[in-house]
Amino acid sequence: MSAMLAGDVIVAGETPATLADAEAIIERGMASFVDVGRALTTIRDQRLYLEAGFTDFESYSRQRWGWTRTRSDYLIAAVSASDTVTTVVGIGPVNERQARELSVLKEEPEQMAEAWKEAVAEADEKGTHVTAAMVKRAVAKKLPPPASEKKRRTRRSQDDLFRQFTVIWLRADAETRKRISDWMNDPGR
Question: What is the pLDDT of residue 160?
Fold first, then answer.
């Protein structure tokens, strides 16, 4: 038995030492996403899945737990985000969904902590608990606008110009339309 076992109970917050210890945490019904994430991290990083006859972590996750690699990665990322926020702020997410939203800022621990504080402040303001949606909104404020948003703005601007031109064209008299048409077809412009 591992040193982390205390009367057949694995002590929460400690890293499992063996595949059996790690799987025991997961089998207990995933009471704590942090414990499950740590167990999965141990299995992946120490390649403990090889002991169970699997060639890679993805196969292990799928066949042993019925999870996609993405689901396992979410749990691992969530525990990392939870640890980061708890270290910086003192108290962190209470569920995997909240922590997963924070994991988007994994390269920016200060921003992650600030986003968590904003979500907590919003929950306090509303007199409710922190939701994943609150965390998501706070994280979104910390992210730069996506490139697709810039394209959308450009496209919208082009559409607006076309609409304005169409309105001007339709309101113009025949002589003005002729001048616009000549100008547009002038190769020397």
Answer: 79
**Does the pLDDT of residue 28 top 70, yes or no?**
no
159, part of any domain: yes
Residue 44 lies in a domain: no
What contacts 54, CB < 8 A, 6 or more positions away?
A: 60, 63, 64
DSSP state of 48: G
Q: How many folded domains does the chain comprise? A: 1
**157 in a domain, yes or no?**
yes
Q: Is 30 exposed, middle or buried (0-12, 13-18, 19+ CB in 10 A)?
A: middle
With both helix axes pointing from N to C terminus, report the angle between 19-27 and 33-45 in degrees, rounded to the nearest 10: 150
In-domain check, residue 166 = yes
Say what the pLDDT of residue 54 is. 96
Q: Which two tokens stand for residue 143?
A: 């992210």
Whole-number Å distance between alpha carbons of 124 and 179: 63
Domain interval for residue 158: 147-175
For residue 119, give the nearest of 96, 92, 144 by alpha carbon. 92
Residue pair 39/23 in contact (Cβ under 8 Å)? The answer is yes
- Whether pLDDT at 31 is above 70: no
pTM score over 0.85: no
- Sign of the Cα torsion 110, 116, 121, 122 reads positive
